[in-house]
Amino acid sequence: MCVGMMMYMEPKLWSDRLAAWLAGDHSKTLAGLREHFGREALVLGILILMAIPALPLPTGGITHLFEIIAFVLCLEFVAGGRLWLPKQWLHRPLPYGVRQQVLPRLIVWVRWYEHHMRPWGGWAVRLRSGRVLWGAALCVCIVAAFIAPPFSGLDTLPALGAVMLCLALLVQDVRLALAGCVVGAVGISLIVFLGAFAWAALRSFI
Question: Under a CB-based contact definition with an 8 Å cutoff, are residues 159 and 141 in contact?
Answer without folding.
Answer: yes
